[in-house]
Amino acid sequence: MKQCPECGEKIVGRIDKKFCSDACRNSYNNKFNKDTKNLIRNTNNRLRKNYRILEALNPEQKTKTSRAKLIEKGFDFNYFTSIYTTKKGTVYYFVYDQGYLPLEGDYFALVKREN
Length: 115
Fold this sequence. Notes:
Layout: H1 22-32, H2 34-57, E1 62-66, H3 67-72, E2 82-85, E3 91-95, E4 98-103, E5 107-112
Antiparallel strand pairs: 1-5, 2-3, 3-4, 4-5
């Protein structure tokens, strides 16, 4: 007889069954994936916050703002989803479809990528 890896109970039922119940399966998988899920959850939360900030500051799809204003709202420059480099070598940082371009003097051009 096989034993449940979570609680040690005997497994009754299908021959390929790994857990005695859905509760044990869920508990085991939650413990197993806990660290990975926290990392992903925290990263997604930071990306979501950055996206909301860019979207709020850029209602016209193209504008300019200061580094101070972005930082004041809690923007984290370490989290973005992609980098786009133009043929001229200009580097845009994107959080999904909302992007920013560092300009001179601690200013940023905010843009929205069109589909």
